[in-house]
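Hello,

I think I submitted the fe (ii) ion job twice by accident. Can you confirm which output corresponds to this input? Input:
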Amino acid sequence: MSKVFEEIKIIFTTGISEEYLGEDVKLVEHMLQCADLAKEAGAPDYLVVASLLHDIGHLLVDDAPGAQDAGIDMHHDVVGAEWVAARFPVSVAEPIRLHVAAKRYLITTQKDYLAKLSPSSVHTLNMQGGALNQEEVIDFISRVGAEDAVRVRLWDDMAKIRNKPTSKLEDFKEAIDSLALLS
Ligand SMILES: [Fe+2]
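Support: Only one job matched these inputs. Its output is below.
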């Protein structure tokens, strides 16, 4: 078993019962659902793994309910991306770094996107800075991994169904092992 897979397994197992604040789904099941949606869409392995790990930052920081209620952003996107970047190629890490910015991008560029968001996601959107201005839109889309981040984001928004049967973490072991920089 690779060291990276083992680390992920520990983080997922430790956080198995952690609720996704304000959402009707647990964090780990949310990430597994997101990875399944990526797989079902025929996404390449690096994007399936990015989807699987996109919210790992929530499991790495103690973003206590009080923080969100108080409007404090714990920047789980950056925390998660840094952890992933130390273990996987840029193609996996950057969509994770940009998945919150992708929400802001989609809000700005797609009229009907806001209606697709959960109430909690709308709440955190304001905390995360809301819509982008024209300059920020151009800046976002020119970044490495931006288009992939938009894809992850759309699966992310759909992956919030409590008790939906999902793959197991082990089902992604091969993809994780093939992409991990450390063995
Ligand atoms: Fe998510």
